[in-house]
Every structure is written in C-alpha cells, then in structure tokens.
C-alpha cells in the first residue's frame, strides 16, 4: 500500500496529466469531505466533481493544474503548498492561486481535503460577487 504522501503526489500528478475529474474519480473516496476557504463544504465525490466543474464554467477556464512547491506528511495527514493554475481552452493561464492544502488519507483514497487560499482574486473574476455555483451550493447545505 502506498504511503499517504505518495497518494497525494499521485493525485496531483493525475490532475495535471488527465484532468481533475479523472483524478477525483480515482483518488477521492466516495464519502470524501472537501472544504474550500469561504465556500460551502462538498460532501461526497459527486458533489466535489460538480463543484469543480461549476467553478470552471463560472470562471471560464477549461482545466486546472497544480504545481507542488512543498509537501509534508505526518501519519495519514499530508500538507501541500501549491500554485493552482486555471487554464483556458486556448492554453493561456487565467489565474494562478497560491494554495495551502490539508489532505487526510485512508488506504489509497483521500477522505478529507481542506484548501486555504485568498479568494479575493477569484471574486475579481466575477465582478466581486460570490459566484453563483457557491451560492447554489450554500442553498443545498444542511
């Protein structure tokens, strides 16, 4: 069985190589919990995929990549320092986002994923308001 740090490396490598949906389907546990600073919590792999694709549609990018600047593990918890790049269909970069992440691994899957970043640059892409996919997710929170 791979070490937790290797699971996280493999996850982001697959995001970069095959896209986020393929990586989510392979590495996120069905019951995963994904928290993004300032956004509603996604409960379950399908909700994570919907949130990820909703963000792409709202912000106008095709896919994203993750540049790992640093990674460390303590048991089943893996911390990442990344630059996530939102890439438009023409291959140009829409925006770079500096992200600190915390991922908890069980077996070979991510069961908890927390992201910490400054959301202000993203808000600027949508006129300073909360994107509609965030508002829709908030309405569905229980």
Describe this structure in words.
- This protein is of the alpha+beta class.
- It has one domain (4-136): Nuclear Transport Factor 2, Chain: A (Roll).
- 37% of the residues lie in helices and 39% in strands.
- The chain is built from 5 helices and 6 strands, in the order H-H-E-E-H-E-E-E-E-H-H.
- The protein has a 6-stranded mixed beta sheet, with helices on one face.
- Helix 2 packs antiparallel against helix 3 (45-59) and helix 3 runs antiparallel to helix 5 (132-140).
- It is globular, with a radius of gyration of 14 Å.
- The chain starts with a helix and ends with a helix.
- The mean pLDDT is 90.
Mass-distribution shape: globular
Return the CATH architecture: Roll
Strand order of the largest sheet: 2-1-6-5-4-3
Integer tally of domains = 1
Strand content: 35-45%
Oligomer: single chain
Counting DSSP E segments of at least 2 residues, the number of strands comes to 6
Give the distance, in angstroms, between the N- and C-terminal Cα atoms: 35 Å
Number of helices: 5
The chain-level mean pLDDT equals 90
Q: What is the percent of helical residues?
A: 25-40%
Topology:
Layout: H1 4-18, H2 20-27, E1 28-36, E2 42-43, H3 45-59, E3 63-74, E4 77-87, E5 93-106, E6 109-116, H4 120-125, H5 132-140
Parallel strand pairs: 1-6
Antiparallel strand pairs: 1-2, 3-4, 4-5, 5-6
């Amino acid at each position: 069985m791979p070490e937790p740090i290797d699971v996280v490396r493999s996850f982001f490598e697959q995001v970069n190589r095959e896209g986020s949906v393929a990586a989510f389907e392979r590495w996120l546990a069905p019951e995963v919990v994904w928290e993004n600073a300032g956004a509603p919590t996604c409960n379950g792999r399908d909700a994570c995929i919907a949130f990820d694709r909703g963000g792409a549609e709202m912000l106008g990018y095709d896919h994203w990549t993750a540049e790992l600047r640093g990674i460390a593990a303590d048991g089943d918890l893996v911390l990442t320092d990344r630059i996530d790049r939102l890439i438009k269909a023409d291959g140009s970069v829409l925006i770079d986002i500096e992200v600190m992440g915390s991922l908890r691994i069980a077996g070979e899957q991510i069961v908890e994923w927390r992201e910490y970043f400054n959301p202000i640059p993203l808000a600027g892409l949508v006129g300073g308001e909360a994107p509609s996919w965030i508002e829709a997710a908030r309405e569905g929170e229980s």
